Hints:
globular; Rossmann fold; single chain
Amino acid sequence: MEGRLQVFSGNSNIALAREITTHLHLNLGRALVGQFKNGETRVKIEENVRGSDVFVIQSMCAPVDHHLMELLIMIDALRRASARRITAVVPYYGYAKQEKKTTGREPITAKLVANLIATAGADRLLTMDLHAPAIEGFFDIPVDHLQAGPLLVDYMRDKHLSAPVVVSPDAGGVGRANRFRERLGASLAIIAKQRPEPDVSEVIEMVGDVEGKTAIIVDDMISTGGTLVEAARVLQERGARRVFACATHGIFAGAAFDQIADSPLEEIIVTNTIPLPPEAQAARIRTISVAALFAEAIMRIHKDLSLSTLFM
Ligand code: R5P
């Protein structure tokens, strides 16, 4: 790709953006991303981007709509400023749980968001652990889809846990848990859950032997923490000696930290796709950085090199 490499960030996760640019030996691009007094988002790109290969980093964490709007407006500003190519770098892609209709008269908001990003002017998307891999197909622009699994496995492997069993907390996560299990060298257990209403999780049954073992629950995201805490409770009831959890995106909505603090979970490992508030430390949460992986992906995209090795 011709043109300078420039990296900008919205306000959702500036710490991660700075870490990524440090790995790239670049300064974060100068941009004003604020608000007008009437509440509308105000953006001004404060350096020349004409002909550049530009990356805009923004996670869709809370306040989700505000951060999405910042991303769209930044892309629009960069396009109008004649950037040669714009890649939206979205470490956490929000609205991803609304990727299908579960009943009549519902939206498919994950698709709407994909349309918005492309319409704003993004030429590519770089993201991590989409809630449903099919979301990649909602985009008609190239999508590079990174996985945090290998980083999380490395962290767990270093603990040398005895008799590890990887647990999928729902049927939809079995593939992810199985990949984790294969890398770690562990057995597998699967929990079937139901949601009697949005944001409420109930365990129906568990398949697999966890008696006397170290259970590692693997999920893509922790939102209210309900799925995790319910799974941990069942694992303890079924005789698991220790319970850990690994997830890529730590949203921790509502009373998640309180629920987790009262649970049998010994340690929860998430990545920094979403910044954590200080309360996270009291809730036994450990963060692993994905900055080096994103930096490598950005450099490879910029140089038109294959990203396949990053997916292994
Ligand atoms: C569900 O399909 C996801 O993989 C997660 O298990 C879920 O989003 C977690 O949500 P919560 O923490 O609110 O139970």
